[in-house]
Hints:
Rossmann fold, 2 domains, 5-stranded mixed sheet, 5 strands, about 55% helix
Amino acid sequence: xxxxxxxxxxxxxxxxxxxxxxxxxxxxxxxxxxxxxxxxxxxxxxxxxxxxxxxxxxxxxxxxxxxxxxxxxxxxxxxxxxxxxxxxxxxxxxxxxxxxxxxxxxxxxxxxxxxxxxxxxxxxxxxxxxxxxxxxxxxxxxxxxxxxxxxxxxxxxxxxxxxxxxxxxxxxxxxxxxxxxxxxxxxxxxxxxxxxxxxxxxxxxxxxxxxxxxxxxxxxxxxxxxxxxxxxxxxxxxxxxxxxxxxxxxxxxxxxxxxxxxxxxxxxxxxxxx
Length: 274
């Protein structure tokens, strides 16, 4: 995605890829050619799974130039941050996490930026993302991972659980799509998108994030509480009021977004699902 988005601003781009490596298939143990490329690089983008990124730091630290920039693209930052703090490298390091799928463009979408050890190269790299229309949200690693639970880990589970629960009802999803109101069609559409995604990324979002387990427990607890409240009008009203109070500060913005969803004709919502 970065190569596509920044192609006209990059020069002499070299990819070290497990599918294309000349001497190695492992960034944690680069061959001679890869070592020379890393030593010359002004910017290195580490787009690998989280365990590989953490392990590769010890290899990369003595290879990169003191004036180089290392950019990691992980969905979870905590373990990488901990390893980085132990190494204390001379080069600049930032993390990014585009809060959207790689097939989508940056314009109008948010990219989280984690400034581990920023400098001039990091500033210029972040400016390139802004020039492409990205909204930059800068935050520390722990805050990023806590936000990722609320914004990625839990929503993914909700969509998958909803679809699996519908299946257990014994209804035909293809048939009920014709009846689906906007909230249901949106959930099923998003579940279809997730189902076609990279399972390694989704597993990393759940398994590598140190805050995700507590988030899943909270979600299960809240579902159990709401299940009990469903047959008690007073309890359900209290739950609705509680949610309303929690969202009060963003109420107008959220209702405007909801209006755009529910006011779209159902036939338009489902046109791509048929």
